Amino acid sequence: MDDCLFCRIISGEVPSNKVYEDSLCYAFRDINPQAPTHILVIPKQHIESVSDINSENSAVVAHIFEVIAKIAKDEGLTEKGYRVVSNIGEYGQQSVKHLHFHVIGGRQFGWPPG
Ligand code: AMP
Questions:
Q1: What is the rounded distance in angstroms from the CA atom of residue 41 to the CA atom of residue 45?
Q2: Do 28 and 17 meet the contact criterion of CB atoms below 8 Å apart?
Q3: 63 is catalytic
Q4: If you measure from the C-alpha of residue 79 to the centroid of ligand 1, how many angstroms do you get, rounded to a whole number?
Q5: Measuring CA to CA, which residue among 19, 31, 29, 61 is closest to residue 43?
């Protein structure tokens, strides 16, 4: 989608700090990191949010979770633990309307989130 920031990052029109890429997904460092490691993993296909995952497109989400496990290992997050977050809609405070999974780690987190 022309007006989607993350689609423009995938196409290379907007620069990003790439961590991983394959035919289905793209991972890059968050511009405003909330922890020592903060990576966003996104499908190349434009899906707005978790609410739009269905039987037609869910295979890419399973693939993304395999990639997340690999990235977490590569970034040294697996031993201590980390968090995977997807914000959805207004109450979830989703600011970019392209499905993305935050992979955040490298410090202790609290629960529940604010
Ligand atoms: P959310 O608020 O869950 O929609 O997450 C969107 C995330 O995208 C935020 O953590 C932003 O810091 C991040 N972000 C926005 N623009 C960019 C960009 N150009 N490059 C990398 N991360 C970005």
A1: 12
A2: yes
A3: no
A4: 26
A5: 61
**Nearest Cα to Cα of residue 100 among 15, 2, 3, 10:** 10
Whole-structure pTM value: 0.98
Residue-level pLDDT at 23: 98
Amino acid at 83: R
Low-confidence stretches of the chain (pLDDT < 50) are: none
Give the atom of ligand 1 at the shortest distance from the alpha carbon of 28.
21
Cα distance between residue 78 and residue 71, in whole Å: 9
Residue 20 β-bridge partners: 27
Tokens of 108: 């202790």
**Calpha distance 12→88 (Å, rounded):** 25
- Which pLDDT score, from 0 to 100, does residue 99 have? 98
End-to-end Cα separation, the chain, in angstroms:
31
32 lines ligand 1 (CB under 6 A): yes
Task: Pick the closest to residue 96 from 59, 33, 48 (CA basis).
Answer: 48
What confidence score (pLDDT) does residue 83 get?
98
